[in-house]
Write a structure and sequence with these properties.
Layout: E1 8-19, H1 22-29, H2 34-40, H3 46-61, E2 67-77
Antiparallel strand pairs: 1-2
Length: 82
């Protein structure tokens, strides 16, 4: 997308965020409710949503909860663009 805008010196860095505190990811992003939100919108059946919540809670109880997401930092400059 940056190249399509004629930007120069484009760089991309992959970064991975790893969260082991379930309250941090749940309070900020509502992770525990994602499956029920998907079910309410018709993308997942309610039984699958219930299983997700049960597995989430079990991972928290047993100390196995880990959430990881990779995102990309992309930058460029507009030198020479008029």
């Amino acid at each position: 997308m940056l190249a399509a805008r004629a930007m120069e010196d484009i760089t991309v860095e992959a970064r991975t965020l790893v969260v082991r505190d379930p309250t941090a990811v749940d309070n900020v992003m509502g992770l525990r409710s994602w499956a029920h939100t998907a079910a309410a919108r018709g993308h997942l059946d309610s039984a699958a949503a219930d299983r997700f919540v049960a597995q989430f809670d079990q991972a928290v109880r047993t100390g196995r909860f880990t959430y990881a997401v990779t995102f990309f930092l992309t930058s460029g400059n507009t030198r020479g663009i008029r």
